[in-house]
Write a structure and sequence with these properties.
The structure is a homodimer.
Chain A: E1 2-9, H1 13-20, H2 24-36, E2 41-45, H3 53-65, E3 72-75, H4 79-88, E4 93-98, H5 102-107, H6 109-114, E5 118-122, H7 134-150, E6 158-161, H8 172-190, E7 195-199, H9 210-226, E8 231-234, H10 239-252
Parallel strand pairs in A: 1-2, 1-8, 2-3, 3-4, 4-5, 5-6, 6-7, 7-8
Helix pairs in contact in A: 1-2, 2-3, 3-4, 7-8, 9-10
Chain lengths: ~270, ~270
């Protein structure tokens, strides 16, 4: 399981200010801190970017890759900003992301082919509603993969995000347990070892005590890992959660266990 | 998932001394501490008990139940000590446990019927060897259940322990991932929602840094929980592990999530 930092967000006051002032310093400091905290990839979430979206995403990507070689997730709903980010990127970039929403199928999905980039596909309905259960998620996954094939993109470029539900939702627990089952079933359903990603911060969105939120992250992450999750998008400054991710990798490694080796390799699900 | 303390062990110097001196104080103090730390059941491990096994187990049970109403696991390989413990017990007791070992089938299994007690069955071969993989464990489970039926005991009294492997074993990781799959498959295989227990302290038996050992416990426990484990036997003074168990219950509860409700109900596996 690869750990992806979700900290580089324009909604972060410091990052937002730095982007507005076109000042790379605070952005680069954040990138270095994320890497030091164990990030193996960085998600760059530029938000809605109402003004100059292309310029701002390009600036973010440029600033980050001047100080870090980590692969970047170009995270915005604005296709022009994605394209600007991909053009600026000189290393590995992943598009985050598309869904069955017609506008995204039309203008974001083709960028994966054009730039030969991996792309994250959300298990959401065309109107962005969350499927009601695991079966509906699997059916959306089949449809998503169908669009992928129609677009002529290599299946290995698809990374599926089952969309973790906030536990504050009335059916949040149910949804999140369904997601474990979905992660287990996806490879057999689609007929290849499709990659998966989940946003752990979603779990505890909303009001709630910080300590218990982190406790829930630490409990849910190993469940996701054992279900075969490949990439965990999370707050990289939740150091204990990052350590738990590392422990999961150690436990799931096919090499003999050694305490010294804290980083493990990516593994398939073990109990599906 | 119910949390069972494995701390009441005769190998604990204080407990060993108290038993030898027939002094209930330190035993009762330990029982109260375990309960305060969140134990929902207490395992009373009297070890081999070379001298006066019956008297010593009876003394342990008597001492504990004078200060605690928690259900007790009568944990010894000595059938006479088990029987003495069960006779002394006035509350709920669980026999821990039997296996396909002929002596245990003959002298421990029948005690479950005689005393109308739940009994833990280990997925081990008759010579106490650990099965090589998940498939072998499942086949042992079928045989174990067969012996159970032959003995005329209510299936609901069976609690299966898949036997967590120390990660220090060359194939420890493999075995422990197989166990997740075994936990998922047992209910369907046996045709009823068979209860399960796992000893988490086994995971990190042997040399190793304490902090990393606890980290591995915290990572493996949610995997077990999501696989449907009903009872976790653990060091109840590993407070963070106990909190993670509680968080697992909250995440798997079918009630709407509330941060205040730290204790959840027992749940079936969600992704099997």
């Amino acid at each position: 399981m690869i750990v992806v930092a979700d900290n580089m967000q324009i909604t972060n006051r410091i990052i937002g200010k730095a982007v507005n002032e076109m000042n790379p310093g605070p952005i680069q400091e954040m990138a270095k801190k994320c890497e030091a905290a164990g990030a193996e990839m960085l998600d760059i979430n530029s938000g809605p970017l109402s003004r100059d979206p292309e310029k701002k995403m390009a600036f973010l990507v440029e600033s980050v890759q001047d100080v870090s070689d980590l692969p970047l997730l170009i995270d915005t709903a604005n296709p022009r900003a994605i394209e600007a980010g991909l053009r600026t990127n000189r290393k590995t970039a992943i598009i985050n992301g598309f869904s069955l929403e017609p506008a995204k199928l039309e203008s974001i999905l083709p960028l994966a082919k054009k730039f030969q980039a991996d792309i994250i596909g959300y298990l959401l309905y065309p109107d962005s509603h969350v499927p009601a259960d695991g079966a509906e998620r699997l059916s959306v996954a089949v449809e998503l993969y169908g669009e992928f094939q129609k677009a002529g993109i290599d299946p290995e470029r698809l990374i599926i995000d089952p969309v973790v539900a906030p536990i504050a939702w009335p059916d949040g627990n149910f949804q999140n347990m369904e997601i474990l089952s979905v992660l287990c079933q996806l490879p057999e359903l689609l007929g290849f070892p499709v990659k998966t990603i989940a946003g752990l911060s979603n779990l505890t969105t909303g009001q709630g005590p910080g300590e218990k939120k982190r406790l829930l992250e630490k409990a849910y992450l190993p469940m996701l890992a054992a279900s075969g999750l490949n990439m965990a998008l999370l707050n990289i400054f939740h150091h204990e959660t990052v350590s738990v991710a590392s422990a999961c990798n150690s436990l799931m490694s096919q090499k003999m266990f050694v305490y010294e080796e804290i980083r493990g390799e990516i593994n398939p699900a073990f109990f599906c």
